[in-house]
Design a protein that fits this description.
With 324 residues, the chain is α/β, with parallel strands linked by helices. Helices cover 39% and strands 22% of the residues. The protein binds zinc ion.
Length: 324
């Protein structure tokens, strides 16, 4: 029976799954990448072995795999199959398709992890029914993916739509990309933790500071204090959601998608997060008169979005007749 194999390579773990032709995750697994102790070849070999084990455990042959999709952090070029660059893993100009093809004879397709996760959210997750969507993932960094006409859009060289790196503040907070004042530097979980720590330092007697004593400071800390009506926690959350709303408005003004989907760790704040930035984002968008407005919604697929998106992308590439 034909299936897809979806792979989601991450900085600390690799997730992979068997996906049916109607996009159900039939079986899944994950392996750790060991603190940058491994070479690119070792990681690739471990991945191949793990995928073969998962297939065997579920009574599939590798010949049953109709196509394989692989999402990766950083820059990979689907056309060449070369993994050009990533910050956290030892892949530099690495011929990933060539290596995987020695074992898997099916077509193998590649994309940026945020783009492929966005495809899954758009087509079978929170954006179901929408032809155009943008997904923003608020995690350690800020991932972004754009779906136009139900297809991943990533620019002519497959590296575009990096909304995390549009500047929101001239000479602002330094970003990992080398610019200053990037969107990511204000709305990632890392950014919220930084803002929370700064507020605690300035207000050691606040309820926010008390919250932080009870558990390790995380993206949740300021939101918890806000829910308890702490003025300092409220200030942090209002500032955070102000930047988020401005960024969402920028995204809306650029693409006017039917839905903006918010995922990643911070989206665990749930509908509160949407309620805090929705009105502001829509009001700041270039929408005038009696025209339809985009929806801002929470992602629904969680950490399965990457694996499912990789399989969906492989199916798209097959349907589009891409032969690599
Ligand atoms: Zn940046």
């Amino acid at each position: 029976m034909s299936i897809f194999l979806g792979v989601d390579i991450g900085g600390s773990s690799i997730k992979y799954g068997i996906v049916s032709l109607d996009y159900k995750l039939l079986a899944e697994g994950s392996i750790q990448t060991q603190d940058n102790q491994e070479t690119a070849d070792q990681i690739t070999e471990n991945l191949i072995e793990a995928c073969l084990d998962l297939l065997a455990d579920n009574h599939y042959q590798k010949e049953d795999v109709m196509a394989m999709g692989v999402g990766v952090p950083g820059t990979i070029i689907n056309k060449t199959g070369i993994y050009e660059f990533t910050g956290n893993l030892p892949f530099h100009h690495y011929p990933l398709r060539e290596k995987l093809s020695k074992t898997f004879k099916c077509p193998i397709y590649f994309g940026n992890d945020a783009n492929l996760a966005s495809l899954a959210e758009s087509r079978i997750g929170a954006g179901q029914g929408a032809m155009n969507s943008v997904t923003l993932t608020l995690g350690t960094g800020m991932g972004a993916g754009v779906i136009l006409n139900d297809r991943v859009y990533s620019g002519f060289n497959e590296t575009g739509c990096e909304f995390g790196h549009i500047v929101m503040q001239i000479d602002g907070i330094p970003c990992t990309c080398g610019r200053k004042g990037c969107f990511e530097s204000y709305v990632s979980a890392t950014a919220l933790i930084r803002q929370t720590k700064e507020a605690i330092k300035d207000n050691p007697e606040s309820l926010l500071a008390q919250e932080a004593k009870e558990e390790k400071i995380s993206g949740r800390t300021a939101f918890n204090a806000w829910r308890k009506h702490c003025p300092i926690g409220t200030k942090v959350v209002m500032n955070y959601t102000k930047y988020l709303a401005i960024g969402i408005a920028n995204v809306i003004n650029s693409y006017m998608p039917e839905v903006v989907i918010i995922g990643g760790g911070i989206s665990n704040e749930g509908q509160d997060l949407i309620d805090l930035c929705q009105e502001d984002a829509i009001n700041q968008s270039f929408i005038h008169g009696d025209v339809a407005k985009p929806q801002i919604v929470l992602a629904t697929l969680g950490n399965k979005a990457g694996t499912l998106g990789a399989a969906l992308f492989a199916d798209d590439c097959l349907k589009d007749g891409l032969k690599y």
